Amino acid sequence: MSTITKLALGVMGQLRPRPTRGDARRSIKLPAPDKRGGMPLMQALAKRRSSREFARKPLPLPVLSGLLWAAFGVNRRGGGRTAPSALDAQEIDVYVALPDGAYIYDAKAHALKLVAASDLRRVTGYQDFVDEAPLDLVFVADHRRMRMVPVAQRESYASAAAGAIAQNVYLYAASAGLATVIRAWIDRNAVADALGLGHDEHVVLSQTVGYPRG
Ligand SMILES: Cc1cc2nc3c(=O)[nH]c(=O)nc-3n(C[C@H](O)[C@H](O)[C@H](O)COP(=O)(O)O)c2cc1C
Fold first, then answer.
1. For 23-43, how does the pLDDT look when each residue is reduced to its tens digit (9 = 90+)?
2. What is the Å distance from ligand 1's center to 49 Cα?
3. Got the DSSP string for 150-182?
4. d(CA 24, CA 59)
5. 29 CA to middle of ligand 1, Å?
6. CB 127 within 8 A of CB 136
7. Please, which pLDDT band fits residue 67 given cuts at 50, 70 and 90?
8. Of 77, 141, 169, 180, which residue is least crowded by CB atoms under 10 Å?
9. pTM of this structure
10. In the predicted structure, residue 166 carries a pLDDT above the cut 90
11. Does an H or E element contain 136, and which?
């Protein structure tokens, strides 16, 4: 769907998900991430960049597993994560929009839990490439987990936390030969509706990931 169409539908509050092409599974257990592999950090940083041209090819489960673990997985005893959060509030939830459904990443179980049995990739941003790329992530801040953070700081702290997750995704993508772009140009009401978010949950950023086109 074109950006103009999305903008028009957005104004009318009509930007909606598509039916799924496959069968949405209630949960998807991810294989254990391969923590030994990957490119040396300095090389990954040298390759980090935003790309907006994606092949439609799906991401294999081991790649999705590595990507999500790198993004915001549990990396130590006690439940610590691969990205920081103020007061360790871990307020960001990573939603995973795939062609066959939208899921939330359960980092503790390293699994995906179904949230909506619809293809809501196109709702995750005004740009047209988000519709057909194999994966759009949505970073959502749950303000209920930030009770210890002064109210005036909650949004900026959540943005910083989401930014750290996004950079993890960028580095994993550089290492694994994937294309990615972080995006703030989102119809946040449409995404919140599609994901069934509550009043205390706030859509911060979205990020598209896939194989590069061509
Ligand atoms: C907070 C933030 C919001 C962004 N929003 C968008 C967006 O909505 N759409 C997009 O295509 N790129 C977006 N970008 C990506 C920037 O355009 C990109 O990082 C910038 O052009 C520099 O390119 P590079 O990432 O390849 O170094 C965003 C980046 C940041 C940090």
1. 788 999 999 999 998 999 999
2. 9
3. -HHHHHHHHHHHHHHHHHHHHHHHHHHT-EEEE
4. 16
5. 31
6. no
7. very high
8. 77
9. 0.96
10. yes
11. strand 135-142
